[in-house]
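ugh ok so i messed up the first submission bc i forgot one of the chains. this is the corrected input, ALL of the components this time, i swear. 202 residues overall. if the numbers dont match what u have on ur side tell me asap before i send this to the collaborators (the ones from the other lab, u know who)
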Amino acid sequence: MQAIFLMVDGLLTLFEKLLPIYLEAVKSGQITPEQQEIVAKRSAAIRANIIIDPVTGKPKFLGPEWEKKP
Amino acid sequence: MRNRLVTLLVLLPALLLVGCGTLDKTGVYAGDKFLYDTDLAIGLGYETIHSFIVWETANHEYLKANAPDVVKAADKMRSDAPMWFASAYVLRDAYVANPSSAGQTALKQVLAMIRAAMQEAVRYTTQTATHN
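and heres the new structure output, hopefully the right one now
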């Protein structure tokens, strides 16, 4: 039970780290070139995380977490 | 932890909304707000869904025994989310090559699926935290 608390806590920490970056970019007012750059670079990085499996021809995320568990 | 959950839930609408500001036209998007919003939605969607998948993996045995719906949702995202993101990028590239309202509509439909999955991921995570 403690473990699940810690993991949820970890997830919230991740959100809290990411949110300011995005919220800064989405808040009202003009979105600066620097803020646009953050969003563009993140999108490009995510695209780089998607590979095409040569066997199935389908896209697949890198990382073992994306494999279905028994 | 409850305070942090409340913070997350309060901020959730911001996660689900696209940007409401205007773009400085000297930026990389050259004033194309739709394209900026698309990249923002993809980024938020990926971070949220990936975090959910990582969290489910780390707690898989516990969740399988106590919250099988969470495992089922995670498995559905494992199987479908890569296709959603790949489709979003294909449609994004098509929109960049030929900006049109039809292209926007198709892209919006894919982003809506990503957004729905984000909502589900956050809902399951917060539900699990609240019930334990």
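quick check: Chain B has a mean pLDDT of 84. that seems consistent at least. The CA atoms of residues 68 and 122 of chain B lie 16 Å apart.
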